[in-house]
# Entry
Amino acid sequence: MKEKIRGYINNPAKLEQLYRDDRAGFKSGFEDLYPEIEKSELAQYWRVRMDYNKMWDRVKKPSLIDIAVLISACFIAGFLIKIPDIFNISMSDLVFYEKNAGIIVFLGMTVYLGWYNRLGDFKSLAFIMAAFLSVTLYVNLLPAVRDNDSVNLVYIHLPFLLWGLFGLVFMDFNLKDRIRRIEYIRYNGDLAILMAIIAIAGAVLSAITIGLFESIGIDIESLYMKNVVLAGSVSIPIVATYIIKNYTALTNKIAPVIAKIFSPLVLLTAIIYLVALVISGKDLFGDRDFLLMFNLMLLGVMAVIVFAISGTSTGGKQRFNELTLFSLSIITVIIDMVALTAILYRLGTYGITPNRLAVLGSNLLILVNLALLIIDLYKVNFKNALISKVEMTIANYLPVYLIWLLFVIFGFPLIFSAW
# Structure
């Protein structure tokens, strides 16, 4: 490795490839070689990069104030989610949660992450407070009707808008820094995994706790579910964020492993599903519920692709995984084209509705995104391009989704007269 680094010392792309192929070997070889090449500007850059990685590879010891802020953020989220019970609000619990659950979860996460990032700029704090207050007022002033599609679409899309708002805090409001966007994508992959692990552990603990009290004749299930489980559920993302930020060396190792295992299984499932769809002769054009499930599957597969790309990019050169992602992207485009055909048929036959327009828009956005990813993944697999280019494409496309979310949340209720 030492001689390879020496040979490519003036070739940034080759050095990056060497690093991604064998990080441990590159670090060792670079340390041995650095005294000979320290006058090179590229070598100095890699020196800074290696030192930075060492800093973040260390497991941080959280201070008492870290834990205190974490507990405070969880308490705020737990208190807010119990508002209907505490203040005996006439709004049904279900409607309250539809309108406010996402706001409460992301508010708790923002409180913790804002403190972690030492977000002290007045303009940034004012923007965050104004944004959460505006969104809360807007969604709670919407008509509380169950049969209004445009209002229901606001409930569905609002968490994604809040996800974008939380991303601004994650990136310290540096919208131009695409590297931070990539870090945010990776964070979400780690967050999903840790949330699942914490949820499983919480479910086991809950079962044991309820069982222990039942064994001595005390029934706490209803009380426990309404209080501990409900408050704990909105605290899971906050606790997961705390772990990711304070135990980086541990969490960074999870995503690459999951990506290696999960993406091939999803590819196999998608292929089998498409074959079964053709054989079954299912009427995708006339069955509204089936089309809805079909689109949910499409969104899920798209999320897996994005997660797997971020996981693959942190694990060195992985030829099999890169080919898998390329194949999965092509299969997903086929799924998307089938869904779009059915959506266009229903629009032409039954007319425009909020749901059909929302599904059409999201499918078109995903189709364009997938096309861009396929082009990049082709270059990665057959032109020796770096997979970091694929991540950059994902980062560049995120604002497009944000614009669509704003249109659905604030435009649909006006266009379709929800007020």
